[in-house]
Automatic annotation (TrEMBL):
Pfam families: FMO-like. GO terms for molecular function: flavin adenine dinucleotide binding; N,N-dimethylaniline monooxygenase activity; NADP binding. It comes from the Bacteria. This is Cyclohexanone monooxygenase. The keyword Flavoprotein applies.
């Protein structure tokens, strides 16, 4: 059995950030276990046409590793993935990463105060501290439609895009039209002969206003890093203004809704299509989407928007509840991820063999989004109630990493056997979280991936990103049960 001070699960955005900061603190006895053959997490798996981030690249990047050479305001998949590759190489993380290693389970040993991580290959690694970088958007969700396995053509989920399927001249059915689908629909519509898009509910869409950075801008960013930091600050403040709509501030909701309506009317002139694409819920209740080409694609003559509920999948295509079957050669699921079953790919067993899935049976909960009781020495990144609807998740993860590294330093330097958030502290914290949540638009009557089946918002942080920054500045050790080694 291999032993390490720290095991990190995942070499995505969160895991890499954790590795960098551990090294910065002089903690080098760690390993990052990555199930794929490359870094970047979601940017390694999602390779669909048009794949990119809806946060400007200048802020969808680490504060400690600025990139003055972003080609565009909103860079696409290949450039984002290369950024994380460069980061891993720059900070010497590749020697700490064990690729093609999928973690199957992790068990806490109370007597030893350590975790035993077991991989699907049968390897076991013991560590004082376990950090999950699994995040929230890693397991594709495919609805269980009757007859799906009978479809005669090619079918795949957008997060596992089949680049071997040529869409030229094909009839394509796309189920879903949210964040991912919004990006690949325009590209599919350009290639295919006919596209049927099946929409469950309309989305609020605002213009991305993307453009290429000029050479002179890149040169200035490289020569004067403070200019790029100022640019980052501007993006951050714009996101904080956008949070006003999520916090149910009527003026900001009106302003954003007005912008979205104007954008819709500018590109969709057909009254019936415009009606179908008009949301019937408060702005911000579901994720607000950004695009410069989505509405243009929806207005194409070869694209048909279907709003009737799907009844089943047939060998020939998709059947709606009225019995109509629209034929398709290719079926693409743009149906997102399993978002509320957090950390699902790995089975975690804490004190007395308690399963994390059982502990979270009524909805995932964590203290400050990074730890939970009954699971000592376990920390999580991008955990429950840390997602945003208005700013960069990398900003949030950096605050979490800063907090967790301080906890790990305390645990290791003071030779503590275990560190575990107090049960009463955890309960009070999550009661406050859900209380704060009632002030947001997320609790409104719309379906979203932010909620679990019971309607509880388990993914999102209910306050501003600025608030989270101060919230995570320093761990309050009195909130933890500490056991000496």
């Amino acid at each position: 059995m291999t032993t390490k001070q720290v095991v990190i699960i995942g070499a995505g955005m969160s895991g890499l950030c954790m590795g960098v900061q551990l090294k910065q603190q002089g903690i080098n006895d760690f390993v990052i276990l990555e199930r794929s053959d490359d870094v970047a997490g979601t940017w390694n798996y999602n390779t669909y046409p048009g794949c990119g981030c809806d946060v400007p690249s200048v802020f969808y990047s680490y504060s400690f590793y600025l990139n003055p050479n972003w080609s565009r305001v909103y860079s696409l998949h290949d450039e984002i993935k290369q950024y994380f590759r460069d980061c891993a190489a720059h900070f010497g993380l590749n020697d700490h990463i064990q690729f093609n290693t999928e973690v199957e389970r992790a068990d806490y040993d109370e007597e030893r105060g350590s975790w035993t991580v077991t991989t699907k290959g049968g390897e076991t690694i013991e560590s004082r501290v376990l950090v999950s970088g699994l995040g929230q958007l890693n397991v594709p969700f495919t609805p269980d439609f009757e007859g799906a396995d009978t479809f005669a053509g090619d079918s795949f989920h957008s997060a596992r895009w089949n680049h071997g399927v040529d869409l030229a001249g094909k009839k394509v059915a796309i189920i879903g039209n949210a964040a991912s689908a919004l990006q690949f629909i325009p590209h599919v519509a350009e290639a295919a002969e006919q596209v049927h898009v099946y929409q469950r509910s309309a989305n609020y869409v605002v213009p991305r206003n993307d453009r290429a950075y000029t050479d002179s801008e890149k040169q200035r960013f490289a020569r004067f890093p403070w200019l790029q930091r100022l640019h980052r600050l501007g993006v951050f403040l714009r996101g904080e203004i956008m949070y006003g709509a999520i916090a149910n501030k009527k003026f900001f909701q009106w302003l954003l809704a007005k912008d979205a309506k104007k954008y819709l009317e500018e590109h969709i002139t057909d009254p019936e299509l415009r009606r179908k694409l008009t949301p019937d819920y408060a702005i911000g209740c579901k994720r607000i989407l950004v695009s410069d080409n989505y509405y243009q694609a929806m207005a194409r003559p070869n694209l048909n928007l279907v709003t009737k509920p799907i009844q089943s999948i047939t060998p020939a295509g998709v059947q709606t509840e009225d019995g109509e079957v629209l034929e398709a050669d290719v079926l693409i699921y743009g149906t997102g991820f399993q978002t509320t079953d957090l950390m699902a790919p790995v089975d975690f067993y804490g004190r007395d063999g308690l399963s994390l899935k059982d502990a979270w049976a009524e909805g995932a909960e964590a203290y400050r989004g990074v730890c939970t009781s009954e699971f000592p020495n376990l920390f999580m990144l991008y955990g429950p109630n840390t997602n945003l609807g208005s700013n960069s998740i990398i900003f949030m993860v950096e605050q979490q990493v800063n907090y967790i590294v301080k906890c790990i330093t305390k645990l290791l330097t003071h030779q503590l056997k275990s560190m575990e958030v107090n049960k009463q502290v955890l309960r009070a914290y999550n009661e406050k979280m859900q209380g704060d949540m009632t002030k947001t638009v997320w609790v409104a009557s719309c379906q979203s991936w932010y909620k679990n089946a019971a309607g509880k918002v388990v993914n999102n942080w209910p306050n501003s990103a600025t608030n989270y920054y101060f919230h995570m500045r320093e761990p309050e050790m009195s909130d933890f049960d500490l056991v000496d080694g």
